[in-house]
Amino acid sequence: MARPDKAAAVAELTEQFRSSNAAVLTEYRGLTVAQLKTLRRSLGENAQYAVVKNTLTKIAANEAGITTLDDLFNGPTAVAFVTGDPVESAKGLRDFAKDNPNLVIKGGVLDGKALSADEIKKLADLESREVLLAKLAGALKGKQTQTAQLFQALPTKLVRTVDALRAKQDGEQGGAE
Question: By Cβ atoms counted within 10 A, which residue in 56, 135, 143, 167 is the most buried?
């Protein structure tokens, strides 16, 4: 490969690292082209899976400010660049690796923080962003309902108390006459 081609490849990889929320490095040794195609589909539409050259990708990662991955660039390496929900892509990688033990998750980076292979598997165990937001909305709605009931109960109790005091007063005045 000519020098300008390598520079262009590094520039493209650098841009992918910079524009991604997360990047997961994997070893794909022993996977067929058909299996790689299936893996790409399982990652979702917000991830791009690319087989890369270690030296060029290491240079690109360093240029993007990511130096924590340097030890992972050995053997046949592919990178999943995630631009959307990293949980969805982590689940896709984890599930594919269960069925295809030749795929090995080496590690990655999420919002500039290095992740080990175990941390990526823990990330995959999380519920998706949409599910977590729905649970939060449900919890907030429940709190709003409780607050509304509390505010509604205060005037009701006040009216009952005033009525009871009035009835007591009327009873005392009726007994005094």
Answer: 56
